[in-house]
Each structure stands twice: as C-alpha cells, then as structure tokens.
Amino acid sequence: QVQLQESGPGLVKPLEALSLTCTVSGDSVSGFFWSWIRQPPGKGLEWLGFVYYSESTEYNPSLKSRVTISMDTSKNQFSLKLTSVTAADTAVYYCARVTGGSGTTFGVFDYWGQGILVTVSS
Amino acid sequence: DIQMTQSPSSLSASVGDRVTITCQASQGITNYLNWYQQKPGKAPKLLIYDASNLQTGVPSRFSGSASGTDFTLTISSLQPEDIATYYCQQYNNLPYTFGQGTKLEIK
C-alpha cells in the first residue's frame, strides 16, 4: 500500500520560504511522477507542480518562479520550496502520486498524503 | 489555462436519490478528466479516471460519462457516506486544473 506523509513547519513568516517534505512508503519515488497540490481554507484545489525521473519538473505558471520541487531518492522523499510567501499562500498542502490513466499521459492523482496546514503570518 | 466549470456548486438530496454533477471544460480535453471526493478534513480521494473508469475499490454506484467538453459524475443511489465535496480535474494540458467543487448534502 502506497502511503505519503507531509512534514514541515506549520507557520511561516511573510516573505520567507515555505519548505515541505513528502515521505513515500510502499513505492519508489524514482518510478513515478510526484506532485504538490494546495487548498486554501474553504476553497478549491490548485496544482503546484510535479517532479519525475529525479530531476525533471513541471510547474504551474501561476506561481511564476517561486516554486521548486525536488526529489531525494536515497530517502524516498520529494520536497516543495515556495519562496517569498504571503498570506495568500496559507493553505493545506498535499503531496500526491501522479499516474497515467488508461493511456500514457500522466495526470491522475491516485494516492494522497493527509495534508499539512501551513499558515503565513508574522 | 483550461477552465473547469462545475455545476451545481451545492446540492441537497435524499438518501436513495440519483445525483448528477456536471463539469464543463473550456476547450477539448479528450477524456483526460478525473473525479475526486473530499470529505471534511480529509485529502481528496480518486473516484473516476479518464472520464468513466472506476478506480479500484470505489462503489459501483459511482459512474462517469463524457459528451464533448461536458462530463458527468452520477451517484445512482445516494448513501449517507457520500456526503462530501466533489471535484473534477483535467490533465489534457498543463497546468492541471480543477473545478471549483460541488458540495453534496443530505436533505
């Protein structure tokens, strides 16, 4: 059974960097695509980006150059870094595995972590 | 970005009712459309992928269909445990985008 667990600080100061880690068990991070998704309180879901094959990444252009997702295969983890945060970045952050559906195009989030609330406040 | 528009935004139905939620894409997305169920305080759970394929372990009362840029999630007989918010998501183009959600309540 694949399991994902987010970890990191729950409070970040404005203009600082938010850093989260997702630890994966039951699967190897080197074998799939891995993504971060966030959900502001009471609002909908926003895809942030994914990492695959250790170094390849794709990001949501809405975050411009603030987001970096990386992978550590030795620890079976992947991480999110979001710089220059503001109150608008307050959200529950989820990590998720990305798989293909019936075909070869990846984009199905089949396993999710429980989520971690990150609040941006001084 | 592809916009995903769900309707209704909220829905109240009785146990045993047939419930339908729709999702319209702003452009063609083939059938690269997924449905998720999110219960309060929990992570979303994959229900349907590629518009009509039931994820393993999901009850058969859930089904999905597609017609052009319109997609439908149907619950054939609403159960109390189906109370949740439902989201559609496209993956035909990056960035992946979600609908705004449909909150389902019991009447």
Description:
The complex is a heterodimer of chains A (122) and B (107). Chain A has 122 residues and is mainly β. Chain A contains no helices and eleven strands. In chain A, the strands form two sheets. In chain A, strands 2, 4, 5, 6, 9, 10 and 11 form a seven-stranded mixed beta sheet that branches. Chain B has 107 residues and is an all-beta fold. In chain B, 0% of the residues lie in helices and 50% in strands. Chain B has strands at 4-7, 10-13, 19-25, 33-38, 45-49, 53-54, 62-67, 70-75, 84-90, 97-98, 102-106. Chain B starts with a strand and ends with a strand. Classes of the chains: A mainly beta (122), B mainly beta (107).
Total DSSP E strands of chain B? 11
Radius of gyration of chain B, in Å, reads 13 Å
The gross shape of chain A turns out to be globular
Order of helices and strands of chain A: EEEEEEEEEEE
Structural class of chain B: mainly beta
Query: Major sheet of chain B: size, sense and barrel closure?
Result: 7 strands, mixed
Q: Low-confidence segments of chain A, ≥5 residues, pLDDT <50?
A: none
Report the sheet with the most strands of chain A, covering strand number, pairing sense and barrel closure. Answer: 7 strands, mixed
Q: How many DSSP H or I helices of chain B?
A: 0
Q: From the alpha-carbon coordinates, what is the Rg of chain A to the nearest angstrom? A: 14 Å
User: Uncertain runs of chain B with pLDDT below 50, 5 residues or more?
Assistant: none
Features:
heterodimer, A: 122 residues, mainly beta, seven-stranded mixed beta sheet, four-stranded antiparallel beta sheet, B: 107 residues, 50% strand
How is this fold's topology laid out?
The complex is a heterodimer of chains A (122) and B (107).
Chain A: E1 3-7, E2 11-12, E3 18-25, E4 33-39, E5 46-52, E6 56-59, E7 67-72, E8 77-82, E9 91-100, E10 106-112, E11 116-120
Parallel strand pairs in A: 2-11
Antiparallel strand pairs in A: 1-3, 3-8, 4-5, 4-9, 5-6, 7-8, 9-10, 9-11
Chain B: E1 4-7, E2 10-13, E3 19-25, E4 33-38, E5 45-49, E6 53-54, E7 62-67, E8 70-75, E9 84-90, E10 97-98, E11 102-106
Parallel strand pairs in B: 2-11
Antiparallel strand pairs in B: 1-3, 3-8, 4-5, 4-9, 5-6, 7-8, 9-10, 9-11
